[in-house]
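If you are new to this repository, start here. Below is one unmodified record pulled from the training split, so you can see the exact layout before writing a loader.
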Amino acid sequence: MKSFKCFRIISYIEGLSYLILVFVAMPLKYLAGYASIVKSLGMLHGILFILFAIALVRFIQTQKEKKELGVDYFIYSLSPFGYLLIENSLKEIQWNKGI
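And here is the target side for that same chain:
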């Protein structure tokens, strides 16, 4: 249960950081000339993405989920709104397994 909860939290935070980076920081860089915000938020998002990948591997191993699910989650994470797909899937897993 610990890896499930950890993965869910990291996935959500990483997804939000991606949205902030794409829809707030990037426009500020190109429309207002604030290049430093992309640098700092990009670094934070990069760290969160690495944590996401580590948590994903731990989740798949400890919850004994199919590896294809891990591949799907990784592909979802490459899209700015992909974390919503992951969250919906995790809610379904939580409901089915009673976690």
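Two things worth knowing about this chain: Residues 2-93 form one domain. The helical segments are 2-32, 35-62, 67-77, 82-97.
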